[in-house]
Each structure stands twice: as C-alpha cells, then as structure tokens.
Amino acid sequence: MTKIDKPAAFSRRSVLKAGGALVVSVGAGLGLEALLDHQAALAQGIKPPLMPDQLSSFIAVQADGHVMAYFGKMDMGHGLTVAVGQIVAEELDVPFHTVKVDLADTATSVNQGGASGSTGIQEGGKQMRVAAAEARRVLVEMAATKLNLPADQLIVTDGVVHARDDAAKKASYAELIGGRYFNVQLDWNKKYGNPLYAPGKAKPKDPKDHKIVGQRIKREDVAPKVFASENFVTDVKVPGMLHARMIRPEVAGAVPVKVDEASIKDIPGARVVWQEGFLGVVAPREWDAIQAMSKLKVEWSQAAPPFPSQAALYDHIRNATVRKRGVEKQNGDVDAAFKTAAKVIEAEYEWPFQSHASMGPACALVEIKDGKVTCWSGTQKSHFVQQGLASILEVPADKVHVIWTTGPGSYGRNDADDAAMDAAVLAKAVGAPVRLQYMRNQGTGWDPKGPASIHRARAAIDASGQVIAYDFVSKGFSRVDVDTNGSKPFDTLAGQTRGITLRSGDGFGVPAESYQFANKRLAWETIPPLLDRASPLRSSHLRDPVGPQIHFASESFIDEVAAALNLDPIEFRLRHINDARDIALIKAAAQKANWQTRPSPRRDQTGSKVNGRGIAYAQRNGTRVAVIAEIEVDRSSGKIWARKFTVAHDCGQIINPDGLEKCIEPNIVQGVSRTLWEEVKFDSKTVTSVDWVTYPILDITETPEAIDIVLLNHPEIAPSGAGEPSTRPVAAAIANAIFDATGVRIRRVPFSPENVKASFA
Amino acid sequence: MAAQTFKLNVNGHDHTVDADPDMPLLYALRDDIGLNNPHFGCGLAQCGACTVHLDGQPIRSCITPLSGVGESKIVTLAGLGTPETPHPLQTAYVEEQVPQCGYCINGWIMTAAAFLRDKKKPTDAEIRQALEGLKCRCGTHMGILRAVKRAAAMMAG
After folding, report:
1. Which domain does B51 fall in, by range?
2. What backbone torsions phi and psi does residue B110 show, to the nearest 5 degrees?
3. CATH architecture of A8-203
4. Under-50 pLDDT residues of chain A
5. Are B46 and B102 part of one and the same domain?
6. Mean pLDDT of the B110-132 span
7. CB-based contact, A357 to chain B, within 8 Å
8. Res A35: pLDDT
9. What is the CATH number of the domain that holds B107?
10. pLDDT beyond 60 at B59
11. What's chain B's average pLDDT?
12. Of A440, A701, A703, which has the smallest distance from its Cβ to B42's Cβ?
C-alpha cells in the first residue's frame, strides 16, 4: 500500500499522545471518563482514545483523502494487509492504493486479538468491513447535508460523494472530514480480542457488487524485504541501547546458585542481571554480550533431570493421569454399538513435540524512559504483550507502547513473547534500553512446543460391512500449558524463572469433519506438563494448534477403515459425508488430481522405488481443505519424496486469490516438513534439538515438484480463515499415500528415512 | 582478544571497524556499519540468513571472523541491486511474491546470484542442488524455485 506522510493532525507525536491516553484494559467497560476524553481529543484534532465503540478507532480519512485503517492484528507475510485494504477500499468506494493499513500498534489500534486462529479476515476483516461501511454511510450523510440533497440520491466514486444524476454536485471525503476524526458510536459487543465486533448502522455491500474484493492484488511489503530496506525487529536500534543474551540451565529446572561476575570482568561494559532463576548479561556491543554469555561462570542447583527418555515419551503419555477430559461431539450410544460389532478396527497414532524453530531466534527491544515503556516486538499479539509488560514492570498498561515489528518467522506462540518479557526485566534492571536476541539453541531448544500426543481410534463394523460406531480420543500435553500470549507473567519464562508459579491450562481438540456415523464420539484428554516451570518442553500453540496431529490420526484411520472394507478412500469418505461443501471439495480435488477409483494399496509395483497416492480432508472453523498427495517411496532407504500435491480449498468468499494461494502453498510445504522430519529430541535433562542439524526441516532438494491448488469461491458465504487449515490434512495424505504405495501403515510422525525403513522391517 | 582496526569494503564503500579479530563479520556489518540486511539466524553456518558475497562468492558472515576478511570486497543484498537497478533475482522475487516473513532472503538470493552468474540455463535439479542446505521456515520453497527459474530466464536473455 502507498506509504504516505501523515498530515499535521495525524503526526506521530499526536498519535503517540493518543496512545498514551489509552486507559482501558481487557474486560473493562466503557466509562463516562473515556467518552469525555474522546470529545477532548476531537477538539484538539488528535487521535481519540482507542475505544472499540468509536468508528475513529478503526477508520480515519486524512486531509489529502487517504484512508487510514487501524487494524489490531499483524501480518506474518500472509498478505493480510492487502486483504484488509481491499475490504476497506471496497466498502468505502475509494481506490485500493489510497488505503493504508496500520498494523498491531498498541498506540493506534484496539485489541482485535493479534494473529490468532486464522481469524485475520474471518474476524478482523469482518470488523473492518462494517467499520468502513459505517464510515461510508456517515460520509454520505455529511455530503447530503453539505449539498442539500437526499442521501439516497448520492453515490460515491473514488472517494467523492456526488449526485447520482449530476457529477458536478459533489463533495470529496477529504473535504468532508479529511484530517479530522469521526465521532460516531458503534454497537460494540463489549468483547476484546478475536471476537471483538462493533458494527454501525450501515449494511455492508452485497458481495455481488464487489469490485476490489476478489482481485489479485500484490503485497507491497515484498519489495522492501527483497531490497533489504525493511527493518525487522532485530534491526531496531535506539540511542544508549545495550545488547543482551539470556543464559539457560543445562538441566531444565535448575537455577543459578552462584554467579561469578569476575569471570566476565575483562569484557567491556559487561554486566550480569540475576534475579532468582532469571540470568542474563548485557554489554554495549553485541559480540561482547555473546562472549559474556559464553564465559560467565555459573553454578547451578542440583535439579533432578525432569524428563523421561525420548524412547519412553509415548508410554509416558499413555500411562499419565488424565488431568482433564473433553467430549466435544457425541451422538448415539457408542459403547453399546461396539458391543454389537461383528468386527472392530482400531489403531493408535503418535505425534512428537515440535518446535516453531523460527528462522531467527526471537528478539525484542525495550526502552523505559520517563515512566513510559516502549517495546518493539515481533509478537503475534502486541496488545497482550502490552498487558504482560505492564504486569511484570508494575506500571499501568497505558504507560506501555508495543510496536509490532516484523519478526523472524511467526507460527503461533513462539519465543517472541518470552523475549519481550525478558528484555523488559533486563531493561528495568540495568536502567538502559535493552535489545535482546536469543541464540539459535534457545530459539529451537527453549521456545514453547507444539504438544506431543497419542490418538486412539476405533470403528465398529456390522456383519454387512457398515460402520456402526466411531470413537476417537486424543491424549496429550495441553495446547495451552502456557497460554497463547504473553499477557500473564506466569505464562512466560521471565515470570516463571522469577518464581511466579505456572498455572497450566487445559486444551486440546477433536477432528473437524462431517462424517455421519450413527454412533460417534470425539474426545480429548490432557496430561500434566513434564516440568511445571521454565520448561523447554512447555507446550502451546504451533501453527494450526493440534490440527496436524489430530487429523494425521483421524484421516489415517478413515483410510484404514476404507482399506479394511476394500473400498476406494474417496468413495468411502463420500458415503459418510453429508456436507455439500465438503462433498464438492473432495470431488474437486479428485477431479484435478485425476484420481482413479480403486482400493488401497496398489499391490502392482516391484522394485525399490514405488509410488502411491493418498487423500485427507478436514474442516477448520468454516474452512474446508482436501489434500491429495502423490509420493515416491524408496523402500531400500526409507526415503519419502512427497512429489505432488493437489489441494482443494474452500474458505467461503475469497478476498484475494493470489494471497490465498500463497498462504496455502507454504502451508503444504511446512506440513510436509513437519510430517517427514520434525521431532524435538530430548534427554532426561533437557531438549537436545538445538539447531538445524538436530532439528532438521524439509530441504529445497526435497521440495515437491508441483502443488496444484483448486480454489472454490463462495462470494455469498462470509470468508473464513486460510492461514492454517491447509496444513492439517498433509500428514495423513502422505501416510495414506505411503500405505497405497507399500501396504505399510505408518502411525508415528516423523516419517524420516530411519523411521520409515524400520516400519518396513 | 584486544580490538584491532579493520578496513572493510562493503557495497563499494570503505569502512573502518575497531573490533575483536575473532568477531564474525556479521556483527561488523550489522552493528558497526549499520547494514541491517544480513540476518542472524543460527551463528552456525546452517541456515544462510547471514549470507554475503566475499569477492563474488557466497559466504556465511556469522562464522567468518573479521581477521579472515582481508582485502576482499563484500557485497550484501542491499548492494546486489536497488529498486531502480534491480538484480534479476530481486525482480523475480517481487514478481513471484516469494517471501512470507522474509528473514531467510539473504541466503537464497545471494547464493542463487552467484550460481546463476556462473551457470546459465540451469535445470530444476541443478537449481535445487545449488541451494541445498539453505533454510526457509515459512515453507516458501515453491516460490523460491519459481523465482530462481524466472531470474535464470531473464539472465539468459
């Protein structure tokens, strides 16, 4: 989007001043005081307090007619900025290039949840759509007054309101309100985060009238990255800044008992920050901070090694006490039906801990000055980090300004929030701005992990070969052992190492599909964490939280049942699915991939290298994805090449097909990586996956030769998410293709050559 | 080790840096010279995010000590091309909309630039081989391959 200079009324200073007036915390109601602030701000021409029930919190028109869209979510490179710009431009009837979307800055946007659950368009875009529609309605009303014409005789073309039958009778948005703010109340649902919704009186356009929504518009943040002019969070510098590094124990759970500061006395300006289990070093020069981290002599407490051996992980999960059980779907009487079964098919699947392993370890810069805190962070959830910093620094939230800045990779609750909190503790301790970047071994070794799990599936078959009951239960570590954001110190390493007790949450999930079985139960069970504080195996959200593991199991199992009944995998699925969009989706994928109807496995191949095909499908919060994998297996080496994918994708209305395809394609590749290679290794003391050798991911030499994408567009259906859904069926599609090729069912991820070869033995 | 003075020629400009001879070139580029674009990814030469050209050859600046740079000329991604005079790979990257987070870009573009300079009309297999070992965590591998092929076609005339 066009970068534009802000006119006087929108100066950075005034925006920051407005940010400083932000007094609302999550859950707080709207008080009279805030409304008075709003009036005062309008009178001064500065950005009013950020209240979700105020139109100006989302949309403003600058003096030159450019439109600002203040958006409380960030863009991790999925093109969300473009999509939201298209939605706003569409509803306002302004050219796309005149809209600037301001992302996830706590001084300019309200808490719309940050990047979370693929809700960027589904929830965030929905709010921006109604806000822009309301802005248009208000502007037309203003023009009606100004032109002395009825509003229903006015139309808008490129930001100019004019009489339907006389284009000379006109008033531009800039003339009507440019440089000033709306004082328009929205009907806020009193929720913050993803569900925040505050429509006005206007009704958004009928999708059939959309001209900008639906277009392939390219991102403008690509060129700055390619020409090396974009500042990542790692690149931000402020005067007087110190570089910092954290020091983690070699045995998880150990704390420093003796720190020899003299051991780094020769390093210029190096200082130690030691608070209970929290240990870091700072120095004016980055290389010196790294040297200090390496050379500091530390004596650690004798902590008992907290982890089982890697080989015992799944037995540990199997035998662990269930902390919480959730039955999310149940119909019929499953247990009774199994008692009448002529045949029972059952299987168990296993998925390891996985790391975000972001391209760069997390970085944050925190400056505390004149009672105000400024933090540059690559977090997915800047508004929650604002609360976390306020809490850990013991200052009011309105004194904390979090500036979201592109980070080195973003796939959920990675190490970014921990880095912000650690940097804040360091900055407060040393009385200077601190830039902290973790080291590689910390980025991979100490980020919150995607949880390890086992999944048990059973199907009851009657004498005629019909499935009469289906029972699926996952058991694993919680997806919210630490929460999905850093708003509470107890969910962060900075809090936990400084003695704040973890309050581990419970959450998992169940398969999302539309299989109709007379008796069906989908459930989950969570188990306690292996270590209750500052654990390198603490678990949280990793792209499509628990989706890949659940659907690896559920969609592999559906294939197992189809094979047991000697049915084609698609034919079997279609017999049991009754959702029209799901059926259309699977048929579209099958047609595109030229799927030949036959049961698996093939049984017609000899030699070392054999080929197979497999399908898997899943829903996710309204979106549906079907993935067909065509793979090659080298039976002598165990090496899998996931050669080709066909992806059918239905997320309702498509805002930007180009951006959508570029969400899907890397999701498939990352899904292949997680399926074939990724497993966090650990020993009894700590995590031993600490770099790209010990945590391998998919190499370019192993990349598929083709990913064909079929987009099913439903303009009449509100858009649902696309950031994550397509990653969830990948593992099962590959597993099903391996079975098709070899007749061998692999039920444990990753499908590394070693594991695959072992399964052939 | 005691600091020494190093003269570095980066993107055609001379710079003087006082630093530990063991300090990797990456930190001199980022912190002393103020070129942000080579990134710290691993510090272990395993990912490529820090890649720059040393006399035209891609090297991992995160493990290259200042004492090993000598008189060599250094070129970073910022020196490879500009929006006005882009390298074909930069043009292709924008056209193909390759990156998501974009933190890995230095490795792929700087490595591919040296490869395409020396190898005209490479095959798909040759491109993959040339880029082996570089990391992209977002999974933009398909886009990377498309962009390198597009740039190769541009460079072949």
Report:
1. 4-79
2. -70, -35
3. 2-Layer Sandwich (3.30)
4. 1-31
5. no
6. 97
7. yes
8. 58
9. 1.10.150.120
10. yes
11. 97
12. A440
Q: Is residue B104 over pLDDT 80?
A: yes
Q: Is A220 on the interface with B (CB under 8 A)?
A: no
Of B79, B97, B125, the domain-final residue: B79
Which pLDDT does position A335 carry in this prediction? Answer: 98
Distance CA B145, CA B128 (A): 8
Query: What values do phi and psi take at A712, rounded to 5?
Result: -100, 110
pLDDT at B2: 86
Q: What is the pLDDT of residues B5-54, one digit of tens each?
A: 999 999 999 999 999 999 999 999 999 999 988 999 999 999 999 999 99
Q: How far is A249 from chain B (nearest CA, A)?
A: 19
Asked: is A240-302+356-444 a CATH 3.30.365.10 domain? The reply is: yes
State the span(s) of chain A assigned CATH 3.30.365.10.
8-203, 240-302+356-444, 564-760
Report, at the CATH architecture level, how domain A564-760 is classified: 2-Layer Sandwich (3.30)
Asked if A601 and A741 touch (Cβ cutoff 8 Å), the reply is yes
Contact with chain B for residue A696, Cβ under 8 A: no
- Tokens 């290794």 locate to A681
Q: Do A287 and B77 touch (CB under 8 A)?
A: no
A233 part of contact set with chain B, CB < 8 Å: no
Q: Tell me the residue length of chain B.
A: 157
Nearest to B142 among A361, A408, A665 (CB): A665
SS3 of chain A: helix, strand, coil, percent, to 5: 35, 25, 45
Per-residue burial over A374-393, b = 16 or more CB atoms within 10 Å of its CB, e = otherwise? bbbbbbbbbbbbbbbbbbbb
By C-alpha distance, the chain B residue nearest A543 is B138
User: Residue A502's pLDDT is what?
Assistant: 87
CA distance B71 to chain A (A): 22
What is the CATH classification number for the domain harbouring B33?
Answer: 3.10.20.30
Count of domains observed in chain B: 2
- DSSP-derived secondary structure letter, A284: S
